[in-house]
């Protein structure tokens, strides 16, 4: 089968469309024929080595986290799926999805809901789980809280706005003005144009700030966080905070998939190291009707190489 892979860290030139062995299926695995796979910031950070402290990839490595496809074969104790089922999934170790075939344990695979295309489904796992863990697990989101989402029109941000609104929070989204209508429809009650307004310099106070961009460290935001508020970020560098901070203003990485930094003594912020996903807070994904080949993923894996901090 063919896959997009790397044999060493580097720029886009290390991407290779190669023939690789079929994946091992094991006794409780489903073999999935991949129809769609996404390209996330973590992919190019794995490629260039920026994520090697958090994602322990070994060479050669097939890139890709999220996928959707059709079950091609089941073995052993797999009982929830049959050949022909439309499914989507997130790879267990943050790589391996950008291939023609993938073998996954039954518990990592979800049946595709009716009405959801494969291209839409493959854009959900990383952003959705990142937002969910950031708000509920790390941020301890509660109904009635004032929540600010920095990067509201990013894929993680859009998921976060909907989750926070569904949980009864009052949601402020930071985005470009052209995204105001979309985010209002998703549940945001207040909107801030990042091009004209610095939310960290404003008078409003928030119970929870979720930074999907990574451009507002805790030191810049602490003035707009309530005394018992929280600041959560998707970028590992966000875990580097001043050594002593009030414990109620706990700060953490959102992804919950990397190594945990040892907690300090009482009175210190709890810090967590996580994988380097969503550094720029937007992702490229295949659009419905886009029949991109595996070779085109090699070009899409270069999408974030410019290093800018735009959210749209």
Structure description:
This protein is an alpha/beta fold and 312 residues long. The protein folds into two domains: 128 residues, Medium-chain alcohol dehydrogenases, catalytic domain (Quinone Oxidoreductase, Chain A, domain 1), CATH 3.90.180; 128 residues, Rossmann fold. It contains seven helices and 14 strands. Strands 11-10-9-12-13-14 form a six-stranded parallel β-sheet. A five-stranded antiparallel β-sheet has the order 7-3-5-6-8. Strands 2-1-4 form a three-stranded antiparallel β-sheet, with helices on one face. Strand 10, helix 5 and strand 11 form a beta-alpha-beta unit. Helix 3 packs across helix 4.
Structure summary:
The chain has about 300 residues and is an alpha/beta fold. The chain is about 20% helix and about 25% strand. The protein is built from seven helices and 14 strands.
- Which CATH class of the largest domain? Alpha Beta
| Proportion in β-strands | 15-25%
Mass-distribution shape: globular
Q: Low-confidence runs (pLDDT<50, min 5 residues)?
A: 238-291, 306-312
Strand order of the largest sheet: 11-10-9-12-13-14
Rounded to an integer in angstroms, the radius of gyration calculated over CA atoms is: 20 Å
**Proper CATH architecture of the largest domain:** Alpha-Beta Complex
Q: Sheet with the most strands? A: 6 strands, parallel
**What is the helix tally?**
7
Helix content: 10-25%
Cα distance, first to last residue?
34 Å
SSE series: EEEHEEEEEHHEHEHEEHEEH
**Number of discrete domains:** 2
What is the total tally of β strands?
14
CATH superfamily membership of the largest domain: Medium-chain alcohol dehydrogenases, catalytic domain
Mean pLDDT: 78
Q: Structural class, judged by helices and strands?
A: alpha/beta
What is the CATH topology assignment of the largest domain? Quinone Oxidoreductase, Chain A, domain 1
